[in-house]
Structures are given as structure tokens and as C-alpha cells.
């Protein structure tokens, strides 16, 4: 562990400041000070990084590579200081120099290279791998523009490019010497020489993949792993850019633009698959560069290629990196000279795949023509995999052509990436118990029947280092005071806090800590929106991507109902509440955008109506991102996890809220089920249709939302207010939402679950009024949250899927 005293730190910092800015500290701007601090921290990390790599080489441990199109890291200064174990020293040293560390941390741009749950999970996993000293590295794309920044203008979402690199990125190191060439398009000629087939790829477009490495610092263990992000650059010998006068300048520029576009943007959709050729390019680009560099590294460390599958594991985060399977086959066969069977065995041993959604519209399938044209050799390999797989199926299911077709990788003009991922991996996992069961019983039942041993569950987790220790220092201090600090490295030790749940003093302290966190959030809301909120009201929070299945609409309809009731009866006895929302919609997902507008317009109406605004307020916070979540979550009283049962694969914010002492109101969906099992029915508020009921309704079609609405005055009034001008003069504004619920029969059972949700919310009110009971529930939630640390999840991946070992500790 890095050991540094305050005085040395001050000296190092001053020196670093002068070195990089060429002026004295007191002449510098805050941003200058941030840069100097980042740069100093990077220096501290550098030596550990080199040592870690040396150790990995000496120990020849299995290396894990986590391939993902998304890594949603957020800010890194705070977490790096924490993990190095020097945050307190640094804070004290900067205090002496009259510099506020928090202020500098807030200057860092969020690294927002992800859409939501899947990308943030990848970031939590990197933190856990390094902290458990597992040789595990990330591989992805260095998007020039991250997930768009959201502005709310006239109550609606407007997307602004996220130019996160405009002031540089102190955490990355460009490794030009480790660049690789990735080939697109062209022709493949098959030669038959010396009894062997040889595949000759010609006339391709070459793209240079340049890696940028970022250190991933483990918690106080001297381990620094690597996140390698690839950027696309033109190959300098492809075109002579100085040949202005030879007429090929325009062509050269076009070539450059088309190459650079590959790593230009992160696709901001996470729910609807679109067959965009650029996205296919992105996928092959980073997968090919990543595998080439892994194999190059392996060979240059004198690795024996025959043992490759004992020395590396590659994890595929959703289907997006599935081309790793045929690409590894290509390398093993075409470049390393292995036969098909050996290559297939090794590839299968190396690859493992996680599924993150059962939403059919998000499943990737590429049109054959597009695929073949862009990746001719990879297409041949996929065809061969499919041919062999189908012939295995034909032997197994004699005469059952439908079954074989249904399971095929290539069918009906498309390549189905989930099928390729399952067939090519030795492990397929879901992300919560319920989700894995649904995969086995429904979505992937045919594959489960064929390969029962491949399927397994790995319930998601979150890094408690970021989401508790760093985001909620006051709660962390208090926990240390009561139960010691073993939970920092063994998060399940938080269970020792449970014995204090009944203690009145502890309950009061928990309430005070929550109030301080609420005050901080209230200040931010006032600063951003000029709205004063009451910190003694219940902070009721729903923050996540905006999507019909996540049912922000259900929450909003309930607020509209409460508004109606308060207008009818101003003396209605409710606990004051502040409803807080945040989240982005995919730019082309019009229904979700309308939901954002609705929430904002309902907020305008309620917040400006003096008849109700002492009791309820509605806040939509702009531009949801990791650093905003870090302020909102510690301040929440109520965590809204209200997706239609079966639709949310796991959810991870549910775990973050629980760890910060919020009470969850939830459907029995995703990991909510496991949270309920942990804390018991008395410490969570459950409502809504069960899995069985939902699946049954979908199967039998026995649901007509209109019948419920027409027979219910209260519901009718709320639904009509969507289109009668109550919230927006333009009566057509929310027609899409209205039609979705009424005309198109409410696919996600918002109406069906409405009263059950209202009852649950009334229960929340009753529980909250009993202050002691409420705090007891919060304490129990905190105490039971340790199991949801991503350290537990990563241990399970390491032992159950990757077969990898730690450098320093046992994985028991
Ligand atoms: C899907 C797609 C579909 C095609 C267009 C681009 C794109 C980009 C990302 C995705 C991933 C969506 C899947 C996802 O994020 N799933 C979430 O994963 C979380 C971590 O496992 C889990 O907690 C959430 O329940 C699940 O919705």
C-alpha cells in the first residue's frame, strides 16, 4: 500500500504543479490544480502498474479479459485516491494549502462511455477485480463522444454531444507502439496447398486500432489492472496526406473520416436493436484489436499457444462482443495454423457470455448481406460454426426441422448473435436468479435443454467502495464506529450492524446522517433549478433510463392522482413527499421522451400550485450520470424499483439505494426478489403482479386495460387528464402515452398494477410516520446489503466461470 505523509504529499504536489504548469500554485486556476493532482496520482499509480504486470508475468496466472462495448466509469480522482489509501492525507495536505479537494474532484468530467446498467456493471467489475487482486482487464472502445448530455428545454429532453475529452484525460496513456491493424471488406481467396486450405484476404480496408490504457487501481493492495480502450486511426501508409496537389486529397480525407467515425460515438440506445453497419464495425474493430493484442502479449511472454485456453479467459458482456468467437477462430486457424476442432475446443474454453436482457427488441441480429460484405472471412467462419451446430442438432432432433431452424445461428437472412454467443461459449449466465430462470425456462429453453451445464446465475453486484465509502462518507464513518472497519474489505460483515437496528440512539444517528445527505441534495436542486424542497419530506426517488417497462409512467400517474386528491381535499393527511426523477431517453424513443415531458409538466403544475406544494413537489433532475447518482442515492428515503415483473433483468441501483439505507418499493422482478429474501417482507414494500401472473396474462391475453379504466372514475380522471389540457395546453402532447395505456392495451400492466401500487405507497406513508420503525428498516437494509457487493459477484465469476485465481488472496 502506498504510504505517504502529509508533508511529503504537499511537497510532491507543489513540485508537480510547477512541473506541468510552469507557474506557482497561487497563480493557478482550480482546473490547473485538478490537473496537477490527477497527474501526481497517476505518477503514484505508475510504479504499481508496472510491478503488477511484472508479477502477473512471473506468476503466469490466468488473465481475464472483460470485453464490453461500454464502461461507465464516472469520475476517477476520488476513487483512485480512496483505493490508493491516500484520500485523507491528500485532503489534509490540500486543506493546508487552502485548496478544497471536493471542489477539485467536481471539476473532473464524468467518463460516460456507457448507456446505463450494463456499462456501470462493467465499471464495478473492474474495481472488484483489481481489489480482489484478480488479473482481470477491460477491453472496449475509446469513444470520442460519450453518452450524450441531456438538457431539459421547454420541459423536454434535448441531446447535446458529450465532448468529454475536450480538456484531455489525465488517466489515459496512448500506446502507439501497441497499435494493431483491423481489416474490413475485401475478398477472401481460398487456396488448397499441401493438403491444407489457406484463406487469403485481399483488397480490404485497413484501420489502425490504437490503444489508450487506463489504470484500474485495487483497494489498498498495490494492484493496478488495465482498461484498454481502442481508438480508430487512419493507417499512415494507406494514403499520403501530404499529396495535396495529386488530386487524391479528397479521397484521403474521406478515408480518414470513415475510419475515425468508428470510434466517434457511443450508440445511445439500449433497448431497440437497429442493424447499423457502423455499430457492426465498432464491434469487430475492438474485438479484433483486443484479441490480436492479447495473443501478441501472450506469445511475447513465451506462452505456448497450445496452452492458450489455460492462460486466458475472455468474457463477452452481452452479445455486443460476440464476434470475439469467430475472430479467435480466425486467428487460431489462419494465423496460428491450428485445425478446426482444436481451435473450436480452445475458443469454447476461453469464451463466456452474460445475457443482460430478455427484451426481444434488444436482441442483435445482423443481416447476412451487410455482415458478409463487411467481414467476409468472419462470415465464412460463422457459416461453418452454424453448419456444424445444425448437423449436431439434426442428429439430436431427427426430423424436427422447425426446432433446428429455430435454434440455428443463421436463419431467414440474419445472423443471430445470442445463438452464436451461446454455442461458442462454455458458460452462459443471467444476472439475477429470476432472470436466469426465465432464460432457462423461456427465452433460451431450447439451448438450456441441449446444454444444461452451460447455464448458470451470477447475481449482479455494485462496488461498495464507490457507492458507500466514497459516496456516503458519513454513513461509512458511523458504521466503522459501530462495527469496526472489517466491512470495508469484507462487505458481508455489515450484517454486524443488524444488532443495532432497534437501538434508539443508532436510529437517531441514521436519521441525522440521512438529513445531512438530503440537505446536500436539496442545495444542489436549489442551485440547479431554484426550487426549495423540504428536507423533512420523504425523498422518493426513481433514477434510471426512461423506458416503458421501467414504468416511470406508473409513478407519474400516482403523483397525478395524489394531486387530484389534494385539490379535492386540502386537508388530506399525507406525509409530505418530494418526488425525484432523473434519467435519459434514447433520442429516437419518442414514447420515453414524452414521458420525460409529462413528468416535467406535472412538476411545473404541482410545484407552482400553492394549494398542494407544501405537501408535494416533483423534481426532474437534468443529465443523469454517475456523479449525480452519487449525490442522489445517499439522500433517498424511498427507492422506486417498479418495473413490470419479468422485464428488468436485475437492476443495480436497487442495491445502491439499499446500501445507503433507503426502503425499497418494488415489484418481485430482477434482483428485487433477492433483496426481499435478504431483508424479509417486513423491511421492503412489495406490490404488483407476480412472474406467474404476468406470464399467464401474456400467454392467455386475458387483459383489457380499457375495461379497468372505464369502470373506475378515479383512474378515468387521471387518464383523461393526459389529453384534456390539464398538464399541457396542447392536448395532443401526451396522446402517445394515453394511447399506449388505453388503445394499445398497456403492454406493461401500468393500469393493472395501479391500485396495488397505491396501497404500497400508503403503506410507505404509515411506516414512515413511525419514525423508529422506519429507521429500523433502514438499518436492516444497510446491514443486509453486503451480499450485493460486486466483490461477491466477481468471486463467483472467477471461481465458477473463468477458473482464475487471485494474486494475493484466496477466493474462498
Ligand atoms: C442493448 C442494446 C440493444 C441494441 C442497441 C444498443 C444496445 C446497447 C446496450 C444494450 C444493453 C441493454 C441491456 C442492459 O443494459 N441491461 C441491463 O443490464 C443491467 C446489468 O446487468 C441490469 O441490471 C438491468 O436490469 C438490465 O436492464
Keywords, please?
812 residues; alpha/beta; Rossmann fold; 3 domains; 10-stranded mixed β-sheet; 6-stranded parallel β-sheet; 33 helices; 25 strands; 48% helix; binds ligand 26V; Glyco_trans_35; Alpha-1,4 glucan phosphorylase; glycosyltransferase; allosteric enzyme; pyridoxal phosphate
Structure description:
With 812 residues, the chain is α/β, with parallel strands linked by helices. The chain has three domains: 1-59 and 76-109, no CATH class; 60-75 and 110-425, Rossmann fold (3-Layer(aba) Sandwich); 464-792, 3-Layer(aba) Sandwich (Rossmann fold), CATH 3.40.50.2000. The protein is 48% helix and 16% strand. Strands 1, 4, 7, 8, 11, 12, 13, 14, 18 and 19 form a ten-stranded mixed β-sheet that branches. Strands 22-21-20-23-24-25 form a six-stranded parallel β-sheet, with helices on both faces. A three-stranded antiparallel β-sheet has the order 15-17-16. It is globular, with a radius of gyration of 27 Å. 49% of the residues are buried. Bound molecules: ligand 26V. Ligand 26V binds next to α6. Ligand 26V is lined by residues 115-118, 121, 267, 269-270, 273, 318, 356-357, 362, 431, 460, 648-652, 670.
Quick recap of the structure?
By secondary structure, the chain is an alpha/beta fold. It has 33 helices and 25 strands. The chain folds into three domains: 93 residues, no CATH class; 332 residues, 3-Layer(aba) Sandwich (Rossmann fold); 329 residues, 3-Layer(aba) Sandwich (Rossmann fold), CATH 3.40.50.2000.
